[in-house]
Amino acid sequence: MRTVYLFVYAFSFFLLTTLVFSSTAQEQHGFEGEKAIERGEEAEYDAGKMIIEHIIDAHEWHIMDIGQKHITVPLPVILIDEGKLYIFMSGKFHHGQNAYKGFSLETEGEYKGKIVRVKEGTLERDPEKALPLDFSITKTVFAIFVSVLIMIIVFVSVGNSYGKRKGKAPKGLQSFLEPLILFVRDDIAKAAIGEKYEKYLPFLLTIFFFILLNNLLGLVPLFPGGANVTGNIAVTGILALFTFLIIAFSGNKEYWKHIVNTPGVPWWLKFPLPLMPIIEIIGVFTKPFVLMIRLFANITAGHIIVLGFMSLIFIFGNMSPVAGYGVSIVSVAFAVFIGLLELLVAFIQAYVFTLLSALYFGMATEEHH
Amino acid sequence: MELIQPGIGLIFWMTLTFAFLLFILGKFAWPAITKGLKEREQSIHDALNAAEKAKEEMKKLQLDNEQLLRKAMDERDAILSDGRKVRDKTIAEAREKASEEANMIVEGAMERIENEKMGAIIDLKNQIATLSIEIAEKILKEELSHGKKQEELIKKLTEDIELN
User: Fold this and answer.
1) ipTM of the complex
2) Which chain B residues are closer than 8 Å to A110 by Cβ?
3) B18 and A242: CB-CB below 8 Å?
4) Is residue B111, in this structure, part of any structural domain at all?
5) Would you state the pLDDT for residue B146?
6) Do A162 and B33 touch (CB under 8 A)?
7) Concatenated DSSP letters for A51-112?
8) Domain around A182
9) Which of residues 107-136 of A touch B (CB under 8 A)?
10) Domains in chain A: how many in total?
11) Which stretches of chain B drop beneath a pLDDT of 50?
């Protein structure tokens, strides 16, 4: 029954997101295409560049281009350089065409997308100076803030409604989220950890909803959605790091003994060459590493495929407008299909990350008999 | 490839915000939610148990009721059979009494009839006697006028009367 609910959720999100996604993506690049035609340029449409620009972090939030005009949301830049703190809006760079306070945003080359020190009065990078420490509120950081804010508002209000409607049936948002909360509690935490699940439940619920929300927001093309948060390796890495730290701190004596001196293994696997301990210790690190890579790769791949289908329209459109229109039908259909698949992936990846974390916690706290 | 080379800023902010999220939700959301869920589950569990208990009690009560009913029915049957017995007895007694009375009445009537009869017979006998005396008177008167023959007739007649 619970799975049915989840599919209904997924499907309703699909209707809201993918359709909008396909139409706006088309619109956005339609303008670029027109722009190229208007100027009569032989501007080569670089699909790879466009796709990578969409999935990596940025100092400003690009919404769309209308003609020559970029519509972007400027974001705060916070730099620490030579012990000094600089805070200003990224709009000061004018999309890399201006230097500000001796800094500039590189648009090409090795340091593309990074803020660098420039030589006085130029836009050229000063190779003698080190890169400033960049603590800017980038697109991804901003999206993280938004999702954290949404989560706090939603779950604190849901928590309050549990207090208000004690012992009564859930209502509204509470009844929408309760199946998911119960799913995490019963099918993930209880199933994987066992009796001591309660200690880990807050963390598991937090990562599950954080990943799910960001996966879904990543599929929404409209501001403030569309940032590739869970497809960013720093984000997934930090989530995996939290899992790793919890495993490390909650591992009991049996767990460590199992790693250092695995029971039930022939002695010559441990002495003179400690093969098993080495493998087990590597395993301790590969577990969170794989968590990080899996989530990052799944979400990023989904974005690349959808953007790839969209790019096909403009690649064919550059050859001839008729081919562009013809391909657009197929491309949009495929993008919608992939979008549906991505909704499934959004849920599955949140589930897998949470389930594996729970399994590792269960392994670390298991009492051997 | 910036795709797999994240900046320090993002790592810093992600760590900070995620820790903040964990803290806030761990303090203000999850305990309330899990507690609410647990409480509700407990209350449902309790309610189910109570319902089961009530059902059992109901069953017991029903059993008691049935027993009571059976007892009452037995009692009723006893009362009814007693009543029937009493009635039968009463009827029998009444019948006996009635028949006795009737017998008495009949006997009385018979006696009276006998008496009347006897009275009538005596009356008749007396009348016959007077009549016979009158007849005898008349005959005697006649015979006396007719001589010896009438004397014999009277003799014969009186003999007849005596036979009667």
Assistant:
1) 0.81
2) none
3) yes
4) yes
5) 65
6) yes
7) HHHHHS--SEEEEEEETTEEEEEE-EEEEEETTEEEEEEGGGGTTTT-EETTEEE--SSTTT
8) 139-365
9) 112-114, 133-136
10) 2
11) none
